[in-house]
Structure formats: C-alpha cells, structure tokens
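> forwarded from #structure-qc
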C-alpha cells in the first residue's frame, strides 16, 4: 500500500474515532454515568495509551521550561472547554452538537490573522461567510430541537478550542506534537479530576459504564490521536484537512443510525455550508504545523 494511501486511511479512521465522542456522551447520559466520571476516565485512558506507545518506542520525553508551562495552560484550558462541550451536548442532539462545534477552524483562522500574521484573502472571507451562513441556518431550525444554552456552550467550546490551537502554535512551536499531546492529556485529566472530586469521585457502577469509559478513552481519544500524527507524516496537509471533515459526518451518521436522531433538510443544508466553508478555509492554508495544531484532542 502506498504511504499516502495509508496516511489517508489513518487520518480518516482517526477523524471517525473522534466523531464518536458525542455518541459516547449520549450513551453516558442515557445510562446515568456522570460527565465528570466519563471525562476523567476518557483522558486518563487516553493518556495511558499515548504514554504507553511512547514507552514502547523508547521515545519518552518529559518536557521542561517553557513547553512544560505551556502544557499546564493548554491542559487546563482543554479541560474547561471539554466540560463546556459535554454540558452543551446534554441540551442538544449529538448531530447538532458536532455540527456547531466543527466551526472551531473558523475561530482558529480568526485568531491567526492578528496573532500569527495570516493573510485575509477574498477566498478566506468567502469561506468564513459560508460557515457563518451554515451556523445561522442550523441555529434557526425548530426551537424544540435546539437549546440556546446548548448552542452557547458548544460555541464557547469551539472558541476555546480555537484559542487552544493558536496558543499551542505560539507557545510550543518547536515541541514534538505527540510529546505535547501526552503531557496535555495528563494535565487535562487532572483538571477534570477537580470537577470529578466536587461530584464525589463517583465511579462507573456497571459493566455498561465501564464499556462506555473504555470506549471513549480508546476509540474516541487515545487511538485517534496516535493515528492522526502517524497519518499526517504521510500525506499533504490539505488532503488531511479534507479527510478531517469525516469527524462531524461520522457523528451525524452514528447519531441517526444508533441514537435514532432526526435531521431536517435545513440542518443538512446548514451542515453542508459549514463543512464547505471550513474546508475552504483550511485548504487555502498549507502550513503543516498549523494542521498539526488544528487536529488536537477534542
């Protein structure tokens, strides 16, 4: 198999894995598994997988100095935005949550223009306009299907993820992304642990609960993150950005087929506009480091 084909499959599988996050969140909600418990074990298991692979490769590295301080900031930020995302998920369907959250590359681009000297071109403005029109279309659907609080929380999570990515580029430009991810996962787990503690350190009570936390830790976190970095070393960044749109598509398909969620034509059209705009924003920028930062932990 050609290296580029293998890389493309890796990124596609990784994006699909990340697309299961909202599904596992809904499983937890339906079975009475608390969000703090779900998220603590998600990041703990994910961190164990990434560190375990680094150990197996004899590639362990403990960061120090500025990169370490950066991971502390990034890990806490990621913990907070993750809590916002899953809280917002409780007010909306998995499909709508994924669609709204996938606007985060727009926030990345918007922050990159003033902070990283990205060029604002007519093509990028048009792409941003498409994505914004898609959001307006999605938010404007039947109020019985959308909670404004849920929209606000997920949008805040998307904006936080934009800050996370741009801050990561500024603070850790010379840090290996896999080592960075390993450290951020640990700090994020510790951040979530604070919220888990306020909820009484509730443990998964049933085999179903344990299946959910293992599933989100392995299929939704650890394995996708490793596949992303392996895949990006084999294909062009623009191809990876297009394959990355499989993430919200996977969530929508799983939400409809497994959770029985319904989609209106207006929602579908809004999603197409968002995906189209986001893809255009990304494919007009060819910096691999930016893409490495863009596809992070969510």
């Amino acid at each position: 198999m050609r290296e580029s084909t293998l890389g493309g499959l890796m990124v596609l599988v990784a994006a699909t894995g990340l697309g299961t996050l909202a599904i596992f969140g809904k499983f937890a909600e339906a079975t009475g598994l608390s969000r703090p418990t779900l998220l603590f074990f998600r990041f703990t298991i994910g961190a164990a997988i990434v560190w375990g692979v680094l150990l197996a490769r004899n590639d362990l590295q403990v960061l120090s100095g500025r990169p370490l301080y950066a991971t502390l900031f990034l890990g806490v930020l990621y913990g907070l935005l993750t809590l916002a995302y899953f809280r917002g998920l409780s007010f909306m369907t998995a499909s709508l949550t994924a669609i709204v959250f996938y606007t985060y590359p727009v926030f990345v681009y918007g922050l990159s223009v003033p902070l990283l000297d990205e060029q604002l071109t007519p093509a990028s403005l048009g792409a941003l306009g498409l994505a914004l029109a898609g959001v307006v279309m999605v938010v404007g659907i039947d109020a019985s299907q959308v909670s404004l609080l849920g929209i606000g929380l997920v949008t805040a999570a998307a904006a936080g993820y934009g800050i996370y990515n741009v801050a990561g580029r500024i603070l850790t430009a010379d840090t290996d992304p896999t080592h960075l991810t390993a450290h951020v996962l640990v700090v994020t787990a510790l951040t979530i642990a604070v919220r888990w503690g306020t909820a009484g350190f509730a443990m998964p009570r049933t085999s179903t609960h344990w299946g959910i936390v293992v599933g989100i830790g392995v299929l939704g976190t650890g394995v996708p993150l490793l596949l992303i970095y392996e895949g990006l070393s084999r294909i062009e960044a623009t191809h990876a950005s297009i394959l990355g749109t499989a993430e919200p598509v996977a969530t929508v398909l799983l939400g409809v087929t497994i959770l029985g969620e319904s989609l209106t034509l207006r929602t579908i059209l809004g999603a197409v506009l968002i995906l189209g705009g986001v893809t255009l924003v990304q494919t007009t920028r060819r910096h691999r480091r930016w893409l490495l930062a863009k596809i992070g932990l969510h």
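QC bot note: Residues 3-294 form one domain. Confidence is low (pLDDT under 50) at residues 286-296.
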